[in-house]
Amino acid sequence: MMMSKRQSRSVLWWFGIAFQLLVLLYYCSVMAAARSTPSSLTLKITKKHVVMDNGLIKVTLSNPTGAIAGIQYNGIDNVLESSFRETNRGYWDIVWSKPDMPSSLFNMLPATNFTVIAQDESQIEVSFTLTFNPDDDTSVPMNFDKRYVMLPGCSGFYSYAIYDHPQGWPDVNIDETRLAIKLSQNMFHYMAISDDIQRVMPSANDRSSGQTLEYKEAVLLTDPTNPKLKGQVDDKYQYSLESKDMDVHGWVCTKPHIGFWVITGSDEFRSGGPIKQDLTSHVGPTSLSTFFSGHYAGDDFGLRLRNGEAWKKVFGPVFLYLNRDSSDNSPRALWEDAKQQMLAETKRWPYNFPKSKDYVAGNLRGTITGQLIIRDRYMNKEVMPTKSAHIGLAPPGEAGSWQHDVKGYQFWTQTDSDGHFEINAIRPGNYSLYAWIPGILGDYKYNVNLNIKPGDNINVGDLVYNPPRNGPTLWEIGIPDRKAAEFFIPEPAPDLMNYAFNNQTQNFRQYGLWDRYTDLYPNKDLVYKVGKSDYTKDWFFAHVNRRVGKKTYVPTTWRISFPLENVNRTGTYTLRIALASSSYATIQVWINSENNIQPRFTINGLGRDNAIARHGIHGLYSEHSFDIPGSQLVKGENTIYLRQPRGGNPFFGVMYDYIRLEGPNN
Ligand SMILES: *[C@@H]1O[C@H](CO)[C@@H](O)[C@H](O)[C@H]1NC(C)=O
Ligand SMILES: *[C@@H]1O[C@H](CO)[C@@H](O)[C@H](O)[C@H]1NC(C)=O
Ligand SMILES: *[C@@H]1O[C@H](CO)[C@@H](O)[C@H](O)[C@H]1NC(C)=O
Ligand SMILES: *[C@@H]1O[C@H](CO)[C@@H](O)[C@H](O)[C@H]1NC(C)=O
């Protein structure tokens, strides 16, 4: 009885199982059909080439050098410039030197060894390595491992690289490193680097036939094939962006309608912090992923390894994405789709596919949370939340040292409107926690260094920033935000326009603005009257030299005049000058008398960020504070003189970020 009951139950049970299996089989076959095209990853290796194919994209790499020789997509045999040599179409490169070499060398990191790292239905990963040869004087004292990854169903491929300088190896400098892509000149004419900055671009030939302006990168297009571009300026530096805004940029081809994009899911491996600027895409058609360079920072910004220091860093992965649009619409559709893809890549970061153990997987990374508040009793009796403060981890150092750092990884975010922040996906290691707050002077650093271990989730609690402050604000010029963007930015000369910048907020990217100073102040220098002048109109964005004659540039002295109703003759006043940029410049400061031979203060040894010539609205930030004894000031009208004494060049000068006079502490 019991037995038969169980038997009858089990017939039903078996029937149920069989039904479920049928459903599962059906489901699997449907899924397999849906997946069959993209899941067929193939890898073909010949003597000269390594070819990765996922049915959507076919990438040909040179063997064993490891350059990107071809990208086949949407029926197009190669979206790269086929007339160039195979190793000159898509490549990693460095500019390097040994300390005793007279100048730096360009090296395209030709690998000598090829290895298959992974090859299954979920992933292809290949490695091309270049190893230091101590017997060869021209060999870079570093090991390089260039990786390429292809995933199924993915309309693009990834590349990353590991640079390794083991302990004890020779001294070396690397000034610059990047991944450069040279697209087909016949196909790609439209460039997009942001929502605002997109345009039909001139060709490399249009530049060759043009007129070189003050430096070789800036060209006036005099005879372009596209007549609409005639009379415009082209300069790759006009298309620089800040690191935090450099997450997607690229090119569009009209026929067939396809796009090529460089997408960066994280800028943890870039150097100099979130507002370090660098090149993106430019005439070529060229698309870059710049990992670090001295642009907007100066020649001494670079990797310097001395005394056998061990150093290793993973650059990337960067995603090279291709998309298409059958409706032959405007390039905007492809740009919008690339932006969506960028958001997806950002969300997927840290990636789970890179096979190198040097790329730290997500579960081995850490998180920190906290809140940053400000105490400045001259601004507010209470502590204040830091709205949209930039807060981040970078290698241990002084406050603000992150802007000079090239060696380490950096992890930045912005606080919410209450100052709360969460920084995640942090690689294990030692860091300082840094911040700066738009609208508040100076640099914050948490007084404890953080050692992040795998899986850490650290709440650092309430952090209080006490910005530089000795006394009440008597007057101020500008906004302390590390930029000169709030000051007067002139229109470019009508015959030196680039129509990519039709948004007023991008006007600083126009060519030749330095010379507009002479047009505005042909004989007498700028005078700013506190209480009457408006810094958005009356404070030129850069303190530059004046042009006299064709190519002669002479120093200029700016004046700030300000009334004081009464002066505390025994008190100490504080003058604070924050600079947003400096290029081969010095600032001499006199109080109430320019006739003294010796300036009262000198801001010396300034930087070489070259942001005036490169159309940056900032380069490197620096802050300078000076005590002024009350005995130097008078009741009534006072004057501060700011002289930049180094003439002879249109690009020597500074950009002020912010100037403030504080009264005595009381
Ligand atoms: C190339 O790779 C093979 C296998 O890993 C290794 O034995 C050989 O030493 C490598 N050669 C160089 C120059 O790195
Ligand atoms: C981090 O700092 C601690 C203490 O200064 C030190 O012992 C440790 O070796 C450092 N870790 C790394 C990865 O540098
Ligand atoms: C101009 O650019 C700013 C900053 O990128 C942006 O917020 C604004 O919407 C743009 N304006 C127009 C008219 O495109
Ligand atoms: C002048 O400054 C000194 C030093 O800061 C201070 O002790 C004194 O109270 C000030 N006098 C007035 C009238 O504010």
Describe this structure in words.
The chain has 666 residues and is mainly beta. The chain is 11% helix and 38% strand. The protein is built from 5 helices and 45 strands. Strands 7-8-9-10-24-19-18-12-13 form a 9-stranded antiparallel sheet, with helices on one face. Strands 5, 6, 11, 21, 22 and 23 form a 6-stranded antiparallel sheet that branches. The radius of gyration is 29 Å and the shape is globular. The protein starts with a helix and ends with a strand. 43% of the residues are buried. Mean pLDDT is 93; it is low at 1-38. Bound molecules: 2-acetamido-2-deoxy-beta-D-glucopyranose (4 copies). The site of one 2-acetamido-2-deoxy-beta-D-glucopyranose (NAG) has 3 residues, from loops.
Beta-strand share of residues: 35-45%
Amount of helix: 10-25%
The description of the largest β-sheet is: 9 strands, antiparallel
What is the first-to-last residue Cα distance?
101 Å
Task: Give the distinct bound molecules.
Answer: 2-acetamido-2-deoxy-beta-D-glucopyranose
* Rg estimate, integer Å: 29 Å
User: Which residue ranges are poorly predicted, with pLDDT under 50 across at least 5 consecutive positions?
Assistant: 1-38
Shape: globular
Strand numbers in spatial order across the main sheet:
7-8-9-10-24-19-18-12-13
- Count the E strands: 45
- Return the structural class: mainly beta
Q: Can you give the mean pLDDT?
A: 93
SS element count, helices: 5
